[in-house]
Write a structure and sequence with these properties.
- By secondary structure, this protein is mainly alpha-helical.
- The protein has one domain.
- The protein contains five helices and no strands.
């Protein structure tokens, strides 16, 4: 799927390292949650124009975090599907209080 990654299991630690700073992860959480809420609002209201805003809410804060906080290139450019899955996975782990253990497991301080 992505250059240098044979499986999602190989990609996940890379993804976490690319999000090592807490501030980078925070803007990702905001974008992930905001994009999900806009998607839900579009479906509930059947205002399909809102679907155009979903990528802006999701990618805007995330890319800001990479370019100005983490100072690296978004993983989306290397593995778009795995990166999207990982955004939701990281946010879910954070919401459930399990992200810290996952970061420790992969020896990422943050």
């Amino acid at each position: 799927m992505a250059t240098g990654f044979r499986s999602y299991a190989d990609f996940w630690p890379f993804y976490l390292r690319e999000h090592a700073r807490p501030a980078t992860r925070a803007v990702h959480y905001f974008g992930t949650i905001a994009s999900a809420l806009v998607l839900i609002a579009a479906v509930v209201t059947q205002s399909w124009w809102w679907l155009l805003a979903v990528p802006f809410f999701g990618y805007g804060p995330a890319w800001f975090g990479h370019f100005f906080i983490e100072r690296n290139k978004p993983a989306t450019f290397q593995a778009p599907v795995w990166s999207l899955i990982s955004d939701y996975r990281m946010c879910g782990l954070w919401l459930s209080g399990r992200l810290g253990a996952e970061l420790m497991k992969h020896q990422i301080r943050g």
